[in-house]
Amino acid sequence: MAGTRARAALAVSAVALVAFAPNSSSPTLGECDNGVCTLRMTGPQLLAEAERLVTERRFDEAAPMLAALHNAPELAMETRFLQGFVDSETGRLDDAAKEFRAILRDRPDVTRARLELARVLMIQRKDAAADHHFRLAEEDGDLPPDIQRTISEARSIIRNRKTWNFNVDVGFAPDSNINNATSARLINSIYGNNTIQLDDEARRKKGIGQTLGVSGGVRLRMSDGLAMLLDADGQLINQKGTSADDISALLAAGPELTMKSGGRVSIQAVGVKRWYGGKVAQSGGGARISYQQNLTAGQRIGFQIDTRKVKSGYGDAYGGWQSSGYATYERVIDRSLVASATVFARRESLGLDAYSNTEFGGSVGVGGELPLGINAGLSAGISRVLFDDPLPILSAADRKDWRFNGRAYVGARSLRVLGFSPSLTYTYNRAESSLDLYRTSRHRLQVGLARYF
């Protein structure tokens, strides 16, 4: 759906190029012979009539006029543009590309010709070349905002359908709670109505960490409608010392089936590992099943189920089975923004029932392209967590939490430093728990540079 919108929006601009052709008087009626009259037209008059026919998609009627216009070298650029547009709309993509390239050889500043060339290359799935010309076209500061948004949308489509992708993000992050701990000094105990004093290591700490994120994937076509997916993701947060260092990695591989309806189903084996504070906090694997379907009017739905078995270096109490399910609805709004809503449920069946829990909640968000090459987004979420058993010493009742989160992001893809674009991300997390020890709040600001391959 997004590809159709991008193609249509760019095509709308095509025939507008010749609007600056000189105006002239009406065509002159020539001699008549046996009821057949000739109509004499100047070059600009002929060009205007050809443009009208092309705009009305009367390509066969426009063809002889375009052929005649090739004898008017002063109108070569406008003629090539209209001919290229007709070729692209009638499936002669190689011929269309030649016409637009010919214009750019003489006039590299003609952005509309560059946009049409990029569109043709995109249809031919020559994505690297198409993306190059879209990127050059973006540098034209006189483009209308809707065309700018369409270019961004087209480039996004190109990135999404690459056979491979790789992204890297580096930066630093001031953090109000690097260990995600409580700020309380005293917590209640059920034994003798006593309180327990927490030492500094168990309480909230501030810090500024260095961050690194990498993600990539490969999509190998096996046959019509069948591909093999390989996805990898890694995150690193380095804090002063090692007690709050956080490193995680994920690898997933499996087949993807594209159905006649356009829906895509993938089944992947998943392997995960996480180190926290210098120890293996989690390692294991499992499987995930995903389904995605494009609807009408820029809408999309998606579902995912993930189940895995994990072990923990912190003890058997933290190992066990983890399962989750997600349902997401997305809708394009205002051509350049995507709004989304997600509901989810998670289940952790761990070695200790006091740590085993069920969580359910949801989130909403909106984000996309803004003028001046700026990307921005806002999201917020809430969830309820119910634990199976009381935690010994701290409570005679089962633990219950409310969790809240929010995120604001802004980036400037139009600015590049060695291919990297700057970004700024603010996140907020808060947990309201029935146990003082697990009441936390956290503010984090990440300043980064990201590159998308």
Describe the structure.
This protein is an alpha+beta fold and 453 residues long. The protein has two domains: 2-160, Serine Threonine Protein Phosphatase 5, Tetratricopeptide repeat, CATH 1.25.40; 164-452, Outer membrane protein transport protein (OMPP1/FadL/TodX) (Porin). The chain is built from eight helices and 18 strands. It has helices spanning 2-12, 43-55, 59-69, 76-89, 93-106, 111-123, 127-138, 145-160, and strands spanning 28-33, 36-40, 164-175, 186-188, 195-197, 207-223, 226-238, 246-258, 264-276, 279-294, 299-311, 320-333, 337-350, 357-370, 374-387, 400-412, 421-433, 440-452. The strands form three sheets. A 14-stranded antiparallel barrel has the order 3-6-7-8-9-10-11-12-13-14-15-16-17-18. A two-stranded antiparallel ribbon has the order 1-2. Helix 6 packs antiparallel against helix 7 (127-138). The protein is elongated. The chain starts with a helix and ends with a strand. Mean pLDDT is 84; it is low at 1-26.
